[in-house]
Amino acid sequence: MRKNLLAVTLCLTTASAWAQSQTLTGRVQDAAGRAVIGATVVEKGTNNGTATDNEGRFTLQSRSSAPRLVISSIGYAPQEVAGGAGLSVQLTESTTSLGAVQVVGSRSQNRSVTDSPSPVDVIDLREVTTKTGQLDVNQLLQFVAPSFNSNRQTGSDGADHVDPASLRGLGPDQTLVLVNGKRQHQSALVNLFGSRGRGNTGTDLNVIPAASIERIEILRDGAAAQYGSDAIAGVINIVLKSSVKELTASVNYGAYDAKYRRDDEKFDGGNLNANVNYGLGFGEKGSFINATLDYNKREHTQRAAVPAPDGLARREYGDPEVSNASVYLNSKFALSDKSHAYVFGGYNKRKGDAFAWTRFADDDRNVPAIYPNGFDPIITSDIDDFSAVAGVRTNLGGWELDLSNNYGSNRFHYGVRNTLNTTLGAASPTSFDAGGFQLRQDVVGLSATRNYTSVLNGLNLAAGLEWRKEWYSLFAGEESSYKNYDPASELAGGSQGFPGFQPGDEIEADRTNFGAYADAELSVTPQWLLAGALRFENYSDFGSTLNYKVATRYNVTEFLTLRGTFNSGFRAPSLAQINFNSTFTNFINGNPVEVLLARNNSAVTQKLGVPSLKQETSNSANVGLTSRLGSGFSVTLDGYYIKVKDRVVLTSQFGDDDPVIGPDLQALNVGQAQFFANAADTRSLGLDVVLSHSLMLGKSRLNSSLAANLNNLRIDRVRTSGKLAGRDEEFFGKREQAFVKASAPPSKINLTFDYQVGRFSTLLRFVRFDKVKLIDWDGNDMNYDARVTTDLTLSYALTNHLQFSVGSTNLFNRYPTLFNPQLTETGGAWDPVQMGANGRFYFAKLQARF
């Protein structure tokens, strides 16, 4: 039976591959009749495609009797045409007309990404996922967009399960994330450890499966005046798929080269991803439903085989094990010729197991009767993320109106297993419910946009109102997860690895926000654009703020454009930063210390005179140029300046021997305490560079690109307060400052070569991560040297509908600089910096498109 099935499969594959073919040819031009170089030409429902040459021409072999071609290029509206010979296709610039998702950074209905006054990266997820080994959104962007940085954490409690990310070297919570132009809710998690996102909240991008995304737009410019809080570093807009009558599916599997394990395993960290996407169109007015199912299973990596001078710091160290299941939906329903309703959103379920610090056999935190050889606690996560957006768009009296309601929720529930409560002795359970937290958001928005073509060369006006309510709750774990049943013994109570949240930590908090904005874009001449925006926000917990943005763009010639922006911005402290309270175990030089993280209005912070958290404020500027130099070559340069005042950070830890805070900590039976404060002013200077070139070599095509981000962040001032005034080094010391600066390497350079000939394609990519500096527990510099990683992917179209790819990321197995595990933040031989610490990854993927 198997032989018969194999024979049938081979026959079908061979028949498909050798069926009668026809040659499709044509030329693609823009509205002015100029050749569109490098435009993508794909036979609909297949993986069969090509690109236009330096004259805008293409040739494609088709095996369909009635082929349909989809032609697209960044900055132009995609066009579908019947295949044939000698086609002439004219693309029009993409705009934000009714029914389309706006290009982030502009509300003009006639503004394309190619003539935006602010720098915008547009990342085609189909291209990226087809040719790379990364499977989740954070890792995809980490190796594609130089200004974006994200690493997997280990030994970082909740951050092991939610990868923090940053843009232009700022914090994860200083980048606003939109989905289809609507504000996405943040994660409920506060990042406490690790080198990236320390003390920050942020948006969990990995709840949105890559298979559901058409493109990602990254606005590399401050935009609080346009979009509100969090948009200090920029905006990431995720545009969901809207394709219809097309089924796509893929299965991917990969594993790491298991260096630095103590056993003989050759591979670990197995990563399986399977997804399917389908769009159903109905009616004659563009109504559709597009749905995605996605499943990802990621296994542990083990990287604990680097010994410390005085023994092993940890027996278990590496990536957590995570299972991730998602369902996402995007839809549109025509109501009339001028109106339609839309609904989109999804649900993500994630479960994770992460390694905590080893408790050795002779550790006073171990009970030998339960674990005679010691134990490695496992911190588990159960994360539920849900979002739903519903709205109506209509044209009324020349104005395009959009009324929407957006609800989102992120719930994070901790557990601890393979552990114990030492104060219960041999009677202790070995697993605990440790409690958790939840963040919810509800947004109601109304926007209006209108374009006046008769005012000079075009005037676009936009205005809107937004009401938002947020809720944050923290709930306790079971009693045995936090209680000390034998306080006289001086043993540490609670579950080892992660003490549960206590009833005193519990809180229910909420706040409301009202915002109003107006912006305008005026084309003074065909070459000169002026733009401005103004936004007022009022928060129920800290008051009001008013922000502005001005921008201009000037086309010096057909091939050279200059642009610049200046704006003010703000970020409201998250409810989690204001209300989070916990006692956790930290390891300093390998020794456990109980640390109290006191909420902003706690008795400890009030006694110290630490004021209530207030908004961060910023001023930023961007000056750049875009140029097309000759056939198929373009260059983009953007220099930027970002100054942030009153940045919310996690302070240094104060010991129980401190003359001011010590007695209070002793009364609470904790060794150290820290808290959130508006403690730092930072200044960033940077440069973004993008060079791209497209070259046709006979029937083959070579696309090359060089993209780089150069970034320098410095801390201008430490702001102390209350009884700790003047104690700068103790309040926010050099070690904590180093973590802020390490949110991104000083430079990241990406060089990519993408070659395609016939059914074969290959992608070769080099990424250089600059050196990173941290400080160890002894106060010494930890200089992580610069590293270059190499990625290689080989792809072959087995048929018009099936494509097979194999490859490797970090082909030459590069690791960060090794250090003494007892002196790092995580207890491993490196902190989570640069490209991560898992080494070479091999992968294979099979993709289908019908």
Spans where pLDDT lies below 50 across 5 or more residues? 1-19, 95-102, 109-113
* N-end to C-end Cα span: 27 Å
Note the total helix count: 9
Main pleated-sheet profile? 22 strands, antiparallel, barrel
Average residue-wise pLDDT:
86
The CATH homologous superfamily of the largest domain is called: TonB-dependent receptor, beta-barrel domain
Q: Report the helical percentage.
A: under 10%
CATH structural architecture of the largest domain: Beta Barrel
CATH uppermost class of the largest domain: Mainly Beta
* Number of separate strands: 41
What CATH calls the topology of the largest domain is Maltoporin, Chain A
Residue share in β-strands: over 45%
Shape: globular
From the alpha-carbon coordinates, what is the Rg to the nearest angstrom?
27 Å
Count of individual domains: 2
- Indicate the structural class: mainly beta
Task: Give a verbal description of the structure.
By secondary structure, this protein is mainly beta. It has 2 domains: 22-90, Sandwich (Immunoglobulin-like), CATH 2.60.40; 113-849, TonB-dependent receptor, beta-barrel domain (Maltoporin, Chain A, Beta Barrel), CATH 2.40.170. It has 9 helices and 41 strands. The strands form 6 sheets. The protein has a 22-stranded antiparallel beta barrel. Strands 8-13-14-11-12 form a 5-stranded mixed β-sheet. A hairpin with a 4-residue loop joins strand 18 (321-334) and strand 19. The chain is globular.
Throw out a few tags for this protein.
850 residues, single chain, 22-stranded antiparallel beta barrel, mainly beta, Maltoporin, Chain A, 2 domains, globular, Immunoglobulin-like, 5-stranded mixed beta sheet
